[in-house]
Prior knowledge:
- The complex is a heterodimer.
- Chain A is mainly α.
- Helix content of chain A is 70%, strand content 1%.
- In chain A, a hairpin with a 7-residue loop joins strand 1 and strand 2.
- In chain A, helix 7 packs antiparallel against helix 10 and helix 10 packs antiparallel against helix 13 (269-294).
- The two termini of chain A are 43 Å apart.
- Chain B is mostly helical.
- Chain B folds into two domains: 1-45, no CATH class; 55-264, MetI-like (MetI-like fold, Orthogonal Bundle), CATH 1.10.3720.
- The two termini of chain B are 34 Å apart.
- At the A-B interface, helix 1, helix 3, helix 4, helix 5 and helix 7 of A face helix 1, helix 3, helix 4, helix 5 and helix 9 of B.
Amino acid sequence: MITRKTSTPSFIARRQRWGFYFVLPxxxxxAIFFLYPILSGLYYSMTExxxxxxxxxxxxxxxxxxxxxxxxxxxxxxxxxxxxxSTFPVWVISLxxxxxxxxxxxxxxxxxxxxxxxxxxxxxxxxxVWLVLLNPSGLITTVVRPFTGLAEINWLNDxxxxxxxxxxVHNWTAIPFYMLIWLAGLTGIPExxxxxxxVDGANFLQTLFRVELPLLRPTAVFVASISxxxxxxxxxxxYTITPGKGGPVDVNTTMGLLxxxxxxxxxxxxxxxxxxxxxxxxxxxxxxxxxxxxxGDKYSIQ
Amino acid sequence: xxxxxxxxLAVTFFFPIFFMVTxxxxxxxxxxxxxxxxxxxDFQGFAQYAKAFDRVPLGQFFFNSAFMAIVDVVVTVxxxxxxxxxxxxxxxxxxxxxxxxVLATITVPFQxxxxxxxxQVFKLGWADSYAGLIIPGIMNAFGVFMMRQFAYSIPDExxxxxxxxxAGEFRIFWRIVLPLLAPASASLAVIIFLFSWNNFxxxxxxxxxxxxxxxxxxxxxxxxxxNGPPQWAVSMAVSTLATLPIxxxxxxxxxxxxxxxxxxxxxx
Lengths: 302, 268
């Protein structure tokens, strides 16, 4: 083999080839288990396919059918509602918690560890615990009874209340997690900047809003977009905690859940793949937003 | 003042976990007792845990989960370190395009891939097998990036010195680079374990037989009350057991755990 740069001795060029060998397994893996499925998924979205017989090409037929599919249209609004409820409040409260836990006070580390605990269990465990707490006549109902006067509340079976309950349970596990990301950003801000602001007579809130938050813009965008992307894919909590996997009357059937239902309950692989394509397009919008707002800065202050 | 706000936050968020653990030692009726009992009076010892093992092959579920998580961790760490090192310290043809390809995989959520990935696994004859359960999720682009960031900081002089001593490139990776990447590997290992252990969607789809089920999917027997009379205390016992390995990791490797999670930005 002839070396590309005449100035590079051939043994160095030969050595550089090792970089290629080192990345090769990863690239091959992603070609097989990422690139190929993506492309075949696009193809399946334009076919009628039940897994047992080979796919039959139908063009954009599945997408046209989706436009008239009530369950699909409902799943879009369910998903958007869930995204709204499980991103904005999480963003605000996790920032608040991070500000609290970035202060100095006795017992901080242990309280932070306790606060962080909801991140650890799987969503199935989260569902199991909250199913008990949210029993219609269970503990949460008893706790709010002075305000509601009700002896029984159908937290998960009431079509109006259920989506809100699911969002609250999700936010319980999500807030400590995003707190951690905010906290990493906050502790990365050099102490001198804060001191300088204080010396100039800025109070606590002024320092927070005028000095720290502007520096945390990359973190702010990161938390907003990652929480949105995660919420768009919602599946596990809805599957495990709601009655009838997405009920009652499909008020919790997100697009993620519908992909599973169409694909693995009804074996309508083509329709499920078409929903995946729509969901992917929606998530790409969020990714584009994230890239636009973080262009130029790195995910750190330096 | 900060202390009291932090105390309120910590108590509110920790309470359900406390409830889970204490309820697993309570009698079935005691869980809904009014007024609420902070600690079990009708103490059951590990009886509820024993009931769980009677009802489903829980030991097998734990073995399957542990097997999957450990294979995931080992393979991901080694291949991510290799690829990260390759991208950081070498210049070769096609490097940029390969890097962008790996980068692109991060922007595509797993949810989108499940249909075609399942079809592929089905065609390979891997449906309902360890291979189908483990192999498609065994690599993680995030790991490659993380390792690449850390590999940049390895001094070139060290690598060149080894080359002058006549060490081969793979030997340099295995004996010098991999040990230097140990702190990053620890963070990556801890979070890959977390994701793998808590993974729900893929095992749910790909596994049919109970013998191959992992803990999160296997324990849905206890959360779906349609399968018989609800056994809430047993469900809390299984939940506590399922969370225990992650809780131990968090307690003993807190620093790596937090660093890894903060870098990944993914909650499994």
